[in-house]
Amino acid sequence: MKPAFSLAAILLIAGTAIHAAPHEGSAFIRDYDANHDGQVTRAEFDAGRVARFRATDTNGDGWVSEDEYVAEYSGRLEQQLAASDRSEEKKVEERQRQIRQTHVRFGVLDKDKDGKMTQAEYDASGARAFAEQDDDKDGIITQADAAATAAKQRAAREKADR
Ligand SMILES: [Ca+2]
Ligand SMILES: [Ca+2]
Ligand SMILES: [Ca+2]
Fold this sequence. Notes:
mainly alpha; 2% strand; two-stranded antiparallel sheet; 7 helices
């Protein structure tokens, strides 16, 4: 198996599995739809990523450490878990799984393995996430794109769970 494939698989499973339940809607669209028209353009996404990188770099030194990365993700995860109607037991499992995956993801995204995620490394991961969400590849993430992607991710995750 080529390394590029396992990277894609990790991102696919780890990136958005938390909002796989259809009634919870698309976290991707909720996160990046700045003008609230129900879809995400590339411009909205890029602006959102820049803002998120700055917010994640809590000590403002220009790069994101593993601790900063996990802390930022953990904050969003807790919001999603709070909004979810799953049982507490399931939430504990989900939390452990997601945090573990987030550490793995940091290691994968930190391409030169210096423990620092630069804006360029962060942007590369964002570009992949956008492409993955844009099911019909027209450069805009609509609810239909998000639903199609969520269905694929559910299938991938069920496979990974087996
Ligand atoms: Ca929008
Ligand atoms: Ca930092
Ligand atoms: Ca699209």
